[in-house]
Amino acid sequence: MSASLPAVIDDWFAQRGWRLRDHQAGMLKAARDERHALLVAATGAGKTLAGFLPSLVDLIETPSEGLHTLYISPLKALAVDVQRNLLTPIEEMGLPIRVETRSGDTPSNRKQRQRSRPPQMLLTTPESLSLLLSYPDADRLFGGLRTIIVDEVHAFAKEKRGDLLSLAMARLQKLSPGMRRVGLSATIADPDAYRAWLAPDGDIDAVRLVEGEPGAPADLSILTPEERVPWSGHSGRYAASQVLDLIDQHGASIIFCNTRSLCELIFQDLWSANDKQLPIGVHHGSLSREARRKVELAMAEGRLRGLVATASLDMGLDWGNVDLVAQMGAPKGSSRLLQRVGRANHRLNEPSKGMIVPGNRFEYLEARACLDAIDDGELDPEQFRPGALDVLAQHVMGVACAGPFRSDELLAEVRSAAPYAGLRDEEWEAILQLNATGGYALKAYDKYRRLVEQEPGLWRITKPAVAQKHRLNAGVIVDNVMMDVRFRNGRKIGRVEEGFGSTLTIGDAFFFSGLSLEVEGFKDADIIVRASKKDGRIVSYGGQRMSMSTHLAARVRGFLADRTQWTRFPDDVREWLDVQSRRSILPEPHELLVETFPHEGRHYLVAYSFDGWNAHQSLGMLITNRMERAGLKPLNWVANDYALAVSSLAPVTDPRALFSADILEDEFRQWVEESHLLKRAFREVAVIGGLVERQHPGQRKTGKQVSFSTDLIYDVLKRYEPDHLLMRAAWEDAKARMTELGRLARLVERAAATMVHVEAERVTPLAVPLMVVIGREQAPGGAADEALLVEAEQALIDAAMRID
């Protein structure tokens, strides 16, 4: 590769008045030196062009057919957007370079053609790449591959999709030893951790770090409510009219929500308050591809003023007309907020404008903590973990589908992938046996025999049908089983989870895709609907909730103890904290405050640990179990990111006994095994690991069928082989993702050393946000009770804020 840009690219830059930025030159230099590279640059810095530029130069200087560059995207929409932005310069320069996308939405005839006559550049996802590698012609397809570009690498590396991609890169490196690995990322806290993940054999020095220009600092603020900051809630719904005013004052806005349900709810709130009939849309991952593309195109062409969205728009889509991003509710992490705000003013030298709409008073503190962290350059911590064994089991089957493999050679290849560098020999043998027999307890069943040892150390699939089933069921995203929502003419609107769909009957209405839809009937796994004016429910979804990051939690704890910070808070937030300090205490950052008090004939315990919703949910189950055995007669409990509240008929006089460290030994294991958590985790790993199939040719299992199959296997393994590979994998998932055991363990450790117990005579100000939720959960339903609920909440607030 020459030392300067080819004339055709040089002229194209000049026509636009552009200059080659330092980080783009740095990526070219890394390619000339045949080095792997990680580019870390702010949104709007031209990361995508910097990633592709060396490939364009190489194809101009050394034209070739066959697959030259793979681009890996976390989102299908991002790959489509990149294709559009990449095709424009290629067409304007008149380059004979073919660029195509490949995902689950790609027609089968195009997929077949891509394998026999691939484009020079293919844009795809980790799942589609893994499937391509499972075909016998993979060595021909990828043998001449020069570069793999992993965009938004921070969205992959720490998750199971990252494990799958890392294993795929190891396979590609074997098929094409000269292949360069390129990672692109927004600002991250620990670039070296990502360099190690990206590198073959974890050799960090093999990956050159290229850093982009910093760009203009973001213009961030917190919305101040027209009245008072709410006591409870987490969505910012109270501010719908203010958010609409912001949309009206800006050219185009994206309104981010943390969940799909909240996305639909906020859209309805905005639409109800939309007196000016501003054109607004909704975008999330459960909408049909056509619905998403429609609003994406409308946004790109400037026909929408506002778009309510989830993480489906967190990354990559380049809309230069967006000049405001609003975050409904707390963002839960500084890196996440920066990524989202980067969607506004997608230009390096202009500040992105963002606003947080806090849902309650605790969320106001979290929002303030988030902005302070960004000002201080403190990003969300990087937490890498060993590669998941269920993902490895799936990858091994994919390799076997492409052709026989030698165990020792494949093991060496797998260990060259950073997440699996520490894979033990016994774990490898367990992976092989899982694919060969299903494991000791299942080896009598022929359906689990997918691999056979043809000769010592040489493995192959047992029959061709195994490959077909593998390709139908491969993937590491295990959503709850979905039902399609369609109009009578067959047009698909999107998908809802089977658990929600099963609660619907003919005539019911629900809000989805910004519409009120009335159920007309059911056909197979489809819900047939028509547009309606009926008031409807908001679609609910399962899945994990985002927890507030540890560094934001530390900052919020700091705010409570540091009165000098309070001058930056609204008057009602300052008053709330001040009365709390007089009625009870505000803990020091290292302390765990536990309050107990009576209220309306019941007794309450509230622990303020700020360790996130998942950890508090787990602790709530464990503590209520202990209270039950102690005769304290617990009634119910609620949790948020900041605290846990438990009600009981008898008072808690010694909370230290409830929080003792031994709660995480036998009691934790017993609770997890008896709860739904372990079975839910096992369902995921059994599907990923290949024990349970989601699809047969021409037929997809229902959620009940998948659950029945996994529950049956779970019960067998729990009884006869509790240390089965996938049982261990399920435990790791349950501990890490579902219960956040690490944060829970630190919480219990802090309780033993620093607990401060306050016995209050009545509810305290800090407890009100949780007590409001308890009150609503205990009240009978119905619109007639709303006035009574409001009255009860005001009485609760008055009692908490009264100083005798």
Instruction: Please state the second-level CATH architecture of the largest domain.
Output: 3-Layer(aba) Sandwich
Describe the main β-sheet briefly: 7 strands, parallel
Work out the count of structural domains: 4
Q: Rg, please? A: 28 Å
CATH fold node name of the largest domain: Rossmann fold
Classification by helices and strands: alpha/beta
Spatial shape: globular
| CATH class membership of the largest domain | Alpha Beta
Number of helices: 30
Low-confidence stretches: none
The total count of strands amounts to 29
Helix content, binned percent = 40-55%
Strand content: 15-25%
Distance between the termini: 80 Å
Q: Name the average pLDDT.
A: 89
The CATH superfamily of the largest domain is P-loop containing nucleotide triphosphate hydrolases
- Numbering strands along the chain, what is their spatial order in the largest sheet? 3-4-2-5-6-1-7
